[in-house]
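Reviewer 2 asked us to include a model.

Predict the structure of this chain.
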Amino acid sequence: MSHEIDPVLLRLGHSIHFEDRDALLETLDQLDQPVPGRDGGRNRDHREHFCMVHYLRFVAGEDLLSFPVILKKPPEGQDPPDFVLTGPDGRRETSS
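Predicted model (structure tokens):
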């Protein structure tokens, strides 16, 4: 089962808004996260998806984020970073 965040992680230029920690953690818990092995067709999207989900779960679980936040996959030509996470104070976190 895929969830609404999947397009953000896999499609360039898309974003999603999370109002609070519970909404983010609930979404992360519902994500489809199969990652094939290296010899099973794993690609860059699989790696980015896996890393994003685990990073977000950690920072949200440790209360290291201020909400609301916007998670965005940069448009084509602006890669890296793999994603941009923007908080209410305009602070941006990125991952490559």
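The chain has one domain: 6-95. The longest helix spans residues 44-61. We have added this to the supplementary material.
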